[in-house]
């Protein structure tokens, strides 16, 4: 802050207070002539916020005769002190809020009680009442030039913008009610400018200025938002899209270019009562005039249930100025001219350029291409990760860690502990699995470098269906893919996604897919027929909405850019329209004798003590891969408790227990 201006502003306030004292003394002389000095107890509410002084008895000064000539000289001195650049804060308030000279001087009278508590004595003397040591409308009308009654009208600046409060008791005449300047305004008059603390529970700074350069595709959005704000901010600008981080960066950059400080308001925090909404909108508009502010209304997670959009629309129609609504999709009927700006994540090419710029010229081209192709990060996240330095593996892990927080609350992250050698499948199925891994790994090359992504709008991700009975290796195959691709594997918790409340399932799935779009995860939908089943005949509202949810799932699966693996025991239960959208389907057959023999061989680690295991005999048991793993593990625990060696009798005992657990028919002779 300019210290020279602060000194000049203080001089102006000092000369204004001198002029005000003379005006009060002139009013006293005019009304009553000479008077007797009286001790007036100062009310507690008159305690100064500036000096923190305790309430003291206010001694009215001895009567003095004030000549109109002296008042004119004080007014001239005040005008001369106010001829500074930038103008005094009181003049700025008057100009911003359209105050007349009388309103401006009334505000000065109210603020003077905080700047000079001794003025309370003059107020009491002017009122002719020792108990009225405070400003009133009647005092302002009698003591200040060019009086006008309408300054207390709700539409006039002092009340409309909450510059002055009227404290009126029951049955008290308006002219004797206390007039009190708001602390925020008194501080502003002294040169202290800050956001009103009434807004602190609702808004927060959007973020630090600066940061990495935005890509060209997002700079276009910045220019639209910037131009709207420079032209007065009369339009309701909407930033739409699924990439919340990019929308935030665009708004922050536009605010920086216009010279505004952006604040974020969660739409869910808005009050619902119309009067409270209007009061909040008026308060924000006042603050936006006193400070260079921009408002970022975040409604990305707000669904229009039970009219939740209505308070936001009402607020936006009244707040005006530099504000922006942030949502996934555009909203209609906001009460103002609307400008919709789509904000998409950086393209793979733009991400690669950001990686190169942040990592420096020495970054290997293949590492840059790999990171840009796999992780759809915004430029801020790329800059933050690159700042940590390190080689390819550290950067890759940092990208994974950056995508985890949003997904960990929506799904269960699995730790793959298997590889290709652990899978026992027919050669054809193994070939398809390797093709899946290759497609995911080479998406950047095919879609971006070779240009196929320019011709394909939907279905850029890889959607895979694994079908087959329980225990045949579907989940293990997903783990193998995750280990091969060095990606996190998330199993979708259906109990956390599917809701009995209409609309909640769709909302949960939207959050899930949006969080996974950064590309650092493989989504595993176990028993997917419960989510992607055939659409039902519509019999009631719940059936209708269940079909809407299924349609939404099919749409998101087609638009999803990552790898989604779905498993089912009942392929026939899946919606045909959904099957058409899949890139690959892999049938996991129940293992035959040769495959079961191989499963038994691999089930026992090489350093596990075993003796006399007959894999040919074990292969005749109708056991799936999952059953084989359970039997081998249970047999090992039996051996550890009985003799320390895994033998055929122990394996057969464990097998008998497993078959009984699953209620699979068997003959006792098979386990003897």
UniProtKB/TrEMBL annotation:
Q: SMART domains in the record, alphabetically?
A: AAA
Q: Where is the composition biased (Polar residues)?
A: 35-48
Q: Which UniProt keywords apply?
A: ATP-binding, Nucleotide-binding
Keyword ATP-binding part of the UniProt annotation: yes
Q: Which family does it belong to?
A: Belongs to the AAA ATPase family.
- Annotated spans, Disordered: 35-65
Tell me which Pfam families the record gives. Answer: AAA, WHD
Q: Which residues form the AAA+ ATPase domain?
A: 460-594
What name has this protein been given in UniProt? ATPase family associated with various cellular activities (AAA)
Is-annotated flag, keyword Membrane?
no
Give TM segment ranges. Answer: none
Which GO terms label this protein's molecular function in UniProt?
ATP binding; ATP hydrolysis activity
The UniProt entry, under InterPro entries, shows: 26S_Proteasome_ATPase (IPR050221), AAA+_ATPase (IPR003593), ATPase_AAA_core (IPR003959), P-loop_NTPase (IPR027417), WHD (IPR054472)
């Amino acid at each position: 802050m300019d210290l020279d201006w602060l000194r000049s502003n203080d001089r102006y306030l000092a000369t204004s207070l001198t002029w005000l004292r003379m005006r009060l003394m002139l009013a006293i002389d005019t009304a009553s002539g000479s008077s007797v000095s009286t001790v007036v107890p100062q009310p507690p509410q008159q305690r100064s916020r500036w000096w923190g002084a305790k309430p003291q008895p206010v001694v009215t000064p001895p009567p003095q005769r004030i000549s109109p000539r002296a008042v004119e000289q004080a007014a001239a001195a005040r005008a001369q002190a106010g001829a500074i650049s930038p103008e005094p804060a009181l003049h700025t308030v008057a100009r911003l809020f359209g105050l007349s000279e009388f309103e401006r001087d009334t505000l000065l009278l109210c603020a003077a009680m905080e700047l000079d508590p001794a003025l309370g004595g003059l107020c009491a003397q002017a009122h002719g009442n020792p108990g009225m040591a405070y400003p009133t409308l009647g005092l302002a009308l009698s003591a200040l030039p060019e009086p006008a009654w309408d300054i207390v009208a709700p539409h006039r600046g002092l009340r409309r913008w909450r510059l002055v409060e009227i404290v009126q008791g029951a049955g008290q005449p308006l002219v004797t009610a206390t007039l009190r300047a708001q602390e925020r305004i008194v501080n502003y008059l002294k040169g202290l400018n800050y956001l009103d603390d009434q807004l602190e529970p609702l808004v927060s700074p959007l973020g630090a200025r600066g940061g990495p350069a935005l890509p060209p595709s997002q700079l276009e959005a910045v220019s639209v938002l910037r131009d709207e704000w420079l032209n007065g901010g009369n339009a309701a600008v909407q930033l739409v899209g699924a990439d919340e981080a990019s929308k935030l960066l665009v708004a922050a950059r536009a605010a920086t270019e216009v010279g505004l400080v952006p604040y974020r308001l969660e739409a869910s925090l808005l009050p619902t009562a119309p009067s409270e909404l209007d009061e909040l909108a008026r308060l924000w508009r006042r603050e936006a005039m006193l400070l260079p502010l921009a408002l970022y209304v975040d409604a990305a997670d707000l669904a229009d249930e039970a009219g939740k959009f209505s308070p936001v629309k009402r607020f936006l129609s009244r707040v005006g100025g530099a504000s922006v609504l942030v949502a996934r999709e555009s909203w209609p009927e906001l009460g103002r001219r609307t400008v919709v700006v789509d904000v998409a994540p950086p393209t793979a090419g733009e991400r690669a350029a950001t990686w190169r710029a942040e990592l420096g010229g020495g970054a290997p081209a293949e590492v840059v291409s790999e990171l840009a192709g796999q992780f759809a990060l915004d430029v801020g996240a790329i800059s933050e990760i690159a700042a940590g330095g390190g080689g390819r593996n550290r950067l890759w892990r940092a990208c994974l860690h950056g995508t985890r927080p949003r997904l960990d609350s929506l799904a269960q992250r699995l730790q793959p502990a298997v590889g290709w050698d652990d899978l026992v499948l027919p050669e054809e199925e193994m070939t398809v699995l390797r093709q899946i891994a290759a497609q995911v790994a080479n998406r950047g090359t095919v879609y971006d470098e070779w240009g196929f992504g320019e011709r394909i709008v939907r279905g850029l991700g890889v959607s895979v269906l694994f079908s087959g009975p329980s225990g045949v290796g579907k989940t293990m195959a997903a783990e193998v893919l995750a280990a091969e691709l060095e990606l996190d594997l998330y199993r979708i918790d259906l109990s956390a996604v599917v809701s009995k409340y209409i609309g909640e399932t769709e909302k949960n799935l939207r959050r899930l897919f949006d969080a996974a779009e950064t590309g650092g995860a493989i989504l595993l939908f176990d028993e997917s027929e419960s989510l992607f089943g055939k659409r039902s005949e519509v019999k009631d509202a719940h059936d209708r909405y269940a079909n809407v949810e299924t349609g939404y799932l099919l749409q998101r699966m087609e638009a999803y850019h990552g790898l989604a693996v779905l498993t089912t025991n009942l392929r026939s239960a899946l919606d045909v329209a959904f099957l058409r959208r899949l890139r690959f389907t892999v049938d996991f057959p129940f293992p035959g004798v040769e495959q079961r023999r191989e499963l038994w061989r691999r089930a026992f680690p090489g350093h596990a003590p075993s003796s006399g295991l007959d894999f040919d005999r074990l292969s005749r048991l109708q056991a799936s891969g999952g059953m084989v793993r359970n039997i081998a593990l249970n047999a090992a625990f039996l051996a550890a408790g009985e003799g320390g060696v895994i033998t055929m009798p122990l394996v057969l005992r464990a097998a008998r227990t497993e078959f009984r657990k699953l209620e699979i028919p068997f003959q006792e002779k098979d386990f003897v």
